Structure formats: C-alpha cells, structure tokens
Amino acid sequence: MRSARWLPAMALAGAIFALPVHAEWPYFGPSLKTGRVALHKVVILPAQFAYKVIGLKGVKGGTEEGEQIGVNLASAVAAELARRGVEILPSPRDAAKTDSEKYAIADLETRYDTVGLLIRKKPGLIREGRLTLDDRVAGFAPGTGADALVFLRGHGEARQPIGAFGTADLHIDVAFVGAKTGEVLGLVRFGIYLSHKEIENRLASGFREALHDLPLPLPPPKH
Predict the structure, then answer these.
(1) Could you tell me the pTM of the whole model?
(2) Using one digit for the tens of pLDDT, what is the confidence trace for 104-121?
(3) What Å distances lie between residue 149 and 62, 111, 205, CA to CA?
(4) Which of 82, 194, 196, 223 is the most exposed place for a label (fewest CB within 10 A)?
(5) Which of 210, 141, 212, 170 is nearest to 70 (CA)?
(6) How do residues 68-102 score in pLDDT, each as one tens digit?
(7) What is the CATH number of domain 21-211?
(8) Helix %, strand %, coil % of the chain (to 5)
C-alpha cells in the first residue's frame, strides 16, 4: 500500500520535470524590426533576481540563492549572445571604481525599473516604440560604443519538501535598450519549472529557446 501511494507522486514529479520551457514570442520595437538598430555590441547590466525558498518551516528569503541565479543568468545570456555573433563589452560592475561610476549604474537601473512596471504589464507597447528610458542613457560611460544595454530581471521560488523532488519555478525578462536613444528595443521572456539542481544548465537552454527570431548577427548554431 505504501508503494502504491508513492507511485502517483513520483509520476507527477516526473511529469513536472519534463515540462518544456515556457517561452513567449519576443517583442520587437520599430528600430529592431526595421533594422535602424542592429545588435552587434552590447553591455550586460548586473542581473536582479528575487528569490524565495519554501520549505517545511515556512518561507524564507533566498538572497544568496537569488544572487547566484542572477550571476548564472548573466553568464548564460552573455554566452548565447556571443555564440550568435554579438560582442559582449566589459561589465560595468567590474569597471566601476569610483562612487560616481557606481551611482551611474544604480541610477540607470532605477530608471529601467520605473519603465519596467509597464514592460511587465504591457509589453506590447514595445512594438509601438512607446517605451523609453530617454536619451540620458547616452551619458552612461560603460555603454559608449554599444548598440544596446541588456537588463536582466527575474523572480522565482524553490520548493524543498522531504525527498529528492525539490523544484524551482523561475520567470525571466531580458530587455534590450538602445544605448544612444534609451528606446526599449526588444524583450525576451521565458519561464522554467525544473529540478532545483538543474537551474544553472537550464537557464542557457531556456534563453536560447526564447530568442526565437530576435534579429542577431548570426543564425542559431546547428546542434
């Protein structure tokens, strides 16, 4: 009887882990769609990922885990874009030495998050070219020479019951913003539901699938 009770649970766990990536079709702004802006060089801003862990003792903040997912996400995005012919310029976080340089990063992130409220609720506005961080973006020194700035946002949670079936549910936005105009050029959005231990590997494949036909210098590599 005990084994019989476990069979449905094990089948459900197997079905959950087999679920594909949920990727929305990318949103393109007019500049990308018409070719006025091409994504040859980009600067990737530090990822911001909100994460929580749900266990038998309740919910706790997963700050350390969220930061690690953010690092893995930035690495996955950089690697995939590089495979598609995009040059990744130096990270502004690594280059920032003075307080003013660090403030410039924080100010840009804050401006993005203000527009990000609309991006999350009404991403279709990107297609109309109506979302922008304004042309003050051009004053961001690390973005000099770049075609776009890449903003990484996400949230998720991990469930850790007794046994081997801990799961993670992640939702991720990758936004491309014109480095000269501040226009939101495009948005790649995807979600993954997976074993907690698979996060690092699946971020790369999830982003790859979500790119669809986002215009990049090179076509997807053949596997």
Answers:
(1) 0.86
(2) 899 999 999 999 889 989
(3) 27, 13, 22
(4) 223
(5) 170
(6) 889 999 999 999 999 999 999 998 888 777 888 88
(7) 3.40.50.10610
(8) 45, 25, 30
Distance, CA of 173 to CA of 107 (rounded, Å) = 20
Residue showing tokens 């990922």: 49
Which are the contacts of 41, defined by CB distance < 8 A and separation ≥ 6? 86, 87, 89, 145, 146, 147, 148
- Furthest-apart CA pair in the chain: how many Å? 68
List the structure tokens of 203.
């971020």
- Between CA 132 and CA 14 the distance in angstroms is 43
Taking alpha carbons only, the member of 42, 23, 27, 47 closest to residue 152 is 47
Instruction: Pull the structure tokens for residue 31.
Output: 């500049």
Query: pLDDT tens digits, residue range 160-212?
Result: 654 445 577 899 999 999 999 999 999 999 998 876 567 777 888 899 999 98
DSSP state of 182: -
